[in-house]
Amino acid sequence: MGTAASQAPFAAELRQLVGAATRAYQADGFSPRRVVAACDGLVRAAGAFAAAETFWRPEAVDRRRTATALELAAAATLAVLASPVMPGFGARLWSELGFASPPAPGSWPAEPVAVPAGQRLHGMDRPYFAGIDAGCDALAAAAAARIAARAAPRAAPGARRQPAAPVGPAQSSPGGPEPQALNAISSKGRRA
């Protein structure tokens, strides 16, 4: 697969992250924390790459195909690398990418794992980690409430202070500090 100049750095980053995870799985330096860090880096890099690739025009078919192939390679590579530490997630992602049998245990790729052209994808219509949206919404509401409490005018000494009304994502006022905090949190760690 040929890569455009803007796509080559992502391909190189994928290879680097595969190497980092592979080294973290080795017996002499085994580190689940470094494995998860490499997987997290892979997810972040893939998200940034996908966002940067949205500008390709429909007529740039070869570039769009290469971008799609790289994004699928990132997903397949994540499925393999995450399988030992998150077996359910790895197996489900691998299956939804159209692979019939799970990756062989302990067989670490030296390169990102390609999804064959024309392979049928299925599923991917529900969250991989149930409950994460509710947890993120609660964190966003709590952050907005803290910001609102700090932004509220101070009462005179000795006066009773009225409790601040909770401010949730749908109740934030336009132009205030709340929307800035919610915008920073609203991605919830996933692409819309």
Considering the chains and any ligands shown, give keywords for the structure:
single chain, 192 residues, mainly alpha, 6 helices, disordered C terminus
User: How confident is the prediction overall: mean pLDDT?
Assistant: 77
Largest beta-sheet characterization: none
Task: Please report which band the strand proportion falls in: under 5%, 5-15%, 15-25%, 25-35%, 35-45% or over 45%.
Answer: under 5%
Which runs of at least 5 residues are low in confidence (pLDDT < 50)? Answer: 167-192
Shape: globular
Proportion in helices: 40-55%
Brief summary:
This protein is an all-alpha fold. The protein is 52% helix and 0% strand.
Explain this structure:
With 192 residues, the chain is mostly helical. Among the domains are: 8-96; 132-154 and 164-185, no CATH class. It is built from 6 helices and no strands. It is globular, with a radius of gyration of 22 Å. The chain starts with 7 loop residues before the first helix and ends in a 7-residue tail after the last helix. The model is unreliable at 167-192 (pLDDT under 50).
